[in-house]
């Protein structure tokens, strides 16, 4: 027992020394620290006490909401609300106080800020997606020389048919005094020479250009072309003046104005330029400068660019070229129909009787046929695809009526390429972008028309195809109801030429429709 008591006494003394004495010292230190912290209250403290780590309150897991700071000094009576972690709680009177309501001026400023227009966006161009293009497959097209041969044969044939309508005979009758189907002696040979000179000038020019390209170096082609045009113009004018002089000998001088009338129209449309007289696809001056010294004919090309200025400049060049070609198409088709169908009737003898209705109908058929043939030649599928690609980069703006003030919009800027669905303000109007890439100027009718026509060129080709198909159907119906032999010959020859144009239009339309339908699906996926 004594040994057990001595051992227990040693253990008790060890516990007192190693446990109780440090515990007492720790309590005293904690009490002193607590007294010092209660005298100076920090506003913001991130420290955590050791007591908080050991003993946790059940409500300590929930984070207390951050309350707004109230200006003023904190009284000493509120010092008892300091948490052991050093974070100060606001008194009961301040916690029940509702937050101050927003001022009326602040509400007005917020509303006006919503309706304000933002300035030019700096990062709008980063949202723009470049349109994806599907290349048009290679479609065989008639060359320049081949087309001029076809056009000369067509216009020469229609001129012959108009003379047939005027000077036909009844040569099959036994009492007929002639063995020919036409009264050739009534036709003025100088009038025929005048018409052939006008209709065949481009064929001669193309043939001579072929010879020059074959025998001369490429660097001399532009100069030789200019010299050839001047020399050929002198020969054509000399021939026309000679024929007109002989025509004046047998016809009234008033009829000479019928021959010279298209010359005044030419000067109004083209001025003193000689190139449109011989070349149906004459180029604007800007495109000539770019192609000088490289090739005879420069076809317009498309350059995928993310610069709005470059896109608008390209569209302007393509628009000028398209208008020049359309002006040439209208003038050439009217000129061919004028000399092939109208001039023979003007110089018919006064005692001659002919069917005016049929001659006028033939003139209309010739004009529409020449117009569609020139359209197919000057606007092939490859050319329309170039304009289509430029139109996709140009985009379109749609004006929004009503001027809603809640829509955030930027001020339109020349140097910004806008993405699809962007809202801009320009000239006090609100516009929305509907193209994948939008470089057009809002409210610019030229840009709007360019996009409307060439956004889908298959619509343009379908309208031409419908016009040519209507022409063919009308001619077939008239042919089915005709009984005169010269009516049958005339319509059969016209149908033979119009079938060829209808075939090329149908082929181009079907190819473009398939290609642009697939391209539109890709654009919808990109835009969506």
TrEMBL record:
It comes from the Eukaryota. It is a multi-pass membrane protein. InterPro entries: Uncharacterised_TMEM39 (IPR019397). The chain crosses the membrane at residues 15-33, 145-170, 190-215, 227-247, 253-278, 329-352, 358-379, 459-479, 485-503. Residues 38-48 have a biased composition (Polar residues). Pfam families: Tmp39. Residues 38-58, 75-127 are annotated as: Disordered. GO terms for cellular component: membrane. It is found in: Membrane. Keywords: Membrane, Transmembrane, Transmembrane helix. Belongs to the TMEM39 family. This is Transmembrane protein 39A. It comes from Zootermopsis nevadensis. The lineage of its organism: Eukaryota, Metazoa, Ecdysozoa, Arthropoda, Hexapoda.
């Amino acid at each position: 027992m004594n040994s057990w008591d001595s051992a227990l006494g040693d253990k008790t003394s060890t516990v007192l020394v190693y446990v109780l004495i440090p515990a007492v010292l720790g309590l005293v230190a904690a009490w002193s620290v607590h007294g010092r912290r209660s005298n100076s209250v920090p506003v913001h403290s991130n420290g955590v006490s050791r007591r908080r780590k050991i003993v946790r309150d059940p409500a300590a897991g929930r984070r207390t909401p951050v309350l707004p700071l109230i200006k003023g000094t904190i009284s000493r009576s509120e010092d008892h609300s300091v948490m052991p972690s050093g974070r100060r709680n606001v008194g009961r009177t301040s916690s029940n106080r509702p937050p101050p309501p927003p001022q009326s001026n602040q509400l007005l400023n917020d509303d006006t800020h919503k309706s304000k227009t933002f300035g030019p966006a700096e990062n709008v161009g980063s949202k723009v997606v470049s349109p994806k293009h599907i290349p048009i497959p290679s479609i065989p097209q008639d060359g320049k020389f081949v087309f001029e041969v076809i056009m000369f044969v067509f216009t020469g044939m229609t001129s012959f048919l108009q003379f047939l309508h005027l000077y036909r005979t009844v040569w099959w009758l036994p009492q007929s005094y002639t063995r020919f189907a036409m009264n050739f002696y009534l036709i003025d040979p100088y009038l025929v020479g005048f018409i052939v000179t006008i209709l065949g000038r481009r064929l001669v020019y193309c043939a001579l250009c072929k010879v020059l390209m074959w025998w001369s170096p490429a660097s001399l082609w532009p100069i030789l072309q200019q010299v050839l045009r001047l020399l050929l113009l002198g020969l054509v004018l000399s021939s026309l003046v000679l024929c007109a002089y002989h025509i004046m000998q047998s016809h009234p001088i008033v009829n000479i104005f019928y021959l010279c009338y298209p010359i005044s129209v030419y000067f109004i449309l083209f001025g003193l330029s000689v190139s449109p007289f011989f070349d149906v696809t004459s180029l604007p001056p800007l495109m000539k400068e770019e192609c000088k010294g490289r090739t005879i004919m420069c076809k317009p090309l498309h350059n995928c660019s993310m610069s709005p200025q470059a896109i608008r400049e390209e569209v302007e060049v393509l628009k000028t070229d398209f208008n020049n070609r359309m002006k040439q198409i209208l003038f050439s088709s009217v000129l061919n129909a004028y000399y092939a169908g109208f001039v023979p009737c003007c110089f018919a003898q006064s005692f001659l009787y002919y069917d005016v209705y049929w001659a006028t109908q033939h003139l209309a058929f010739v004009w529409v046929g020449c117009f569609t043939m020139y359209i197919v030649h000057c606007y092939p599928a490859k050319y329309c695809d170039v304009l289509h690609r430029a139109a996709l980069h140009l985009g379109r703006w749609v004006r929004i009526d009503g001027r809603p003030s809640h829509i955030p919009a930027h001020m339109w800027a020349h140097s910004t390429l806008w993405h699809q669905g962007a809202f801009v303000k320009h000239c006090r109007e609100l516009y929305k972008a509907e193209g994948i890439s939008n470089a057009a100027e809002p409210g610019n009718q030229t840009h709007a028309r360019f996009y409307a026509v060439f956004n889908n060129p298959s619509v343009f080709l379908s309208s031409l195809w419908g016009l040519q198909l209507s022409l063919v159907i009308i001619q077939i119906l008239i042919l089915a109801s005709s009984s005169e032999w010269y009516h049958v010959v005339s319509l059969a020859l016209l149908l033979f030429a119009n079938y060829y144009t209808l075939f090329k239009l149908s082929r181009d339309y079907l190819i473009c429709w398939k290609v642009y339908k697939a391209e539109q699906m890709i654009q919808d996926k990109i835009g969506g």
